Amino acid sequence: MREEKKPVIVWRNIGQLEASDRRSFSTTDCQPLWNSNKRFGASGGSGSDGNGSSFTFAGITVVEKRNRKEFAPTPAQLLKHPLSVLALVHREATLFVAAAVSGAVAKTATAPLERIKLLMQTHGARIAQEGAKKSIGFIEAVATIIKVEGVRGLWKGNFPQVIRIIPYSAIQLFAYENFKNFFRGEDDKLSVIGRLAAGACAGMTSTFLTYPLDVLRLRMAVDPGFRTASEIALSMLREEGITSYYSGLGPSLFGIAPYIAVNFCIFDLVKKSFPEEAQRRTQTSLFTALLSASLATLMCYPLDTVRRQMQMKGTPYNTVLDAFAGIWAGDGFIGFYRGLLPNFLKNLPSSSIKLTTYDFVKRLVETSENEYQRIIEENREEHNQKFSD
To answer: Which residues 6+ apart lie within 8 Å of 44 measured at CB?
Structure first.
């Protein structure tokens, strides 16, 4: 997200200074006029044109930051126009916080569906040694959780998920905006390939930096009992070593890269296809987010199933190929899409809340900056009017 910086030239009347009859100057030695004794005197305040006539001159100084501070809104003006206060906060900081909050709210609201999805995804691997059936349905998963752990169990593992999703969402959306700038062409336009690359890089960056918390969340969701996050983290470190925090990182990176790339790219492109007036509507952002999340989920869900089964304690799979072969042998093609229904029910509102909230805040920031700049222009005009009078 680039902020355009435009120079501003301000004309001011300077008292006791008369305009010179000399309207133009010419020089043949290509030297600055103020360095030429033929044109100006040593004092810099007056000079001669070489023909015996003298004149006075003035200079123009452009100081962008000084002008912005000089005509900045007063406290009274900020109170009168409260939206402009948002412009005082750094744009990137505002968007970073907005992404974090929207991600936390979205994940908490859909935590029960996430728990159900994880049980359905990993059921076959968890009971492989018990001789039980290899799949579990949506209703059966809900009944099992409530029977064993109560309604509270539907939100089990949500705390480390929220802790993770705050930096995850913030890093992901913030990185996407910056990667888009990086992949822009010489004409400052962003191609479809550039958008996909930006989304993939943003997804991998956020996943790598927050991956241990994702593994911890999974262990809490599928392990029996009410163990705390700290107990599970210490147990993993003691029994499995530090590498257990990065189990399944490979398929996670390969899975999240196309998911975020497709999701964000479709969101941007579809939204741009609407008329400008429609683009500003929240309904447009919501519809676009639902569409992009649905297509991305259908394309990338099998890789999510693979990484979840590789994250589990005692997983029989050492590589991604082992996991693909094992899931196919045990449950066929449908095994890669176990838990897709709760995932759709979770991902669609979650992704929609996150992208719609973020898009709304971006528009709010732009409106705030425009309001702030309008007050500055009014103050500048009022100041110039006083000088003219």
So the answer is: 34
Tell whether the model's pLDDT for residue 121 goes beyond 80: no
List the alpha helices (DSSP H) in 183-281.
Answer: 192-222, 229-240, 249-273, 276-279
pTM of the model: 0.54
| Cα distances (angstroms) measured from residue 114 to each of 18, 120, 218, 332 | 77, 10, 10, 23
User: Looking at the structure, do residues 198 and 324 belong to the same domain, yes or no?
Assistant: yes
Is 216 within the bounds of a domain?
Answer: yes
pLDDT, tens digit, 9 for 90 and up, residues 355-381: 777 788 888 888 888 888 888 888 888
Query: Which range of residues forms the domain containing residue 35?
Result: 1-65
CB 285 within 8 A of CB 271: yes
Look at residues 335, 344, 249 and name the one whose alpha carbon lies nearest to residue 296: 344
The per-residue b/e assignment along 28-45, b for 16 or more CB within 10 angstroms, e otherwise, is eeeeeeeeeeebbeeeee
Element (DSSP H or E) covering residue 53: none
292 and 169 together in one domain:
yes
What single letter denotes the amino acid at residue 124?
Answer: G
Q: Hey, is 47 helix, strand or coil?
A: strand
User: Count of domains in the chain?
Assistant: 2
3-state secondary structure of 131: coil
Place of tokens 């023909």: 51
Tell whether 339 is covered by a domain: yes
Whether 300 and 262 have beta carbons less than 8 Å apart is answered as yes
180-216 confidence digits (pLDDT tens): 988 987 777 888 899 999 999 998 998 888 888 888 8
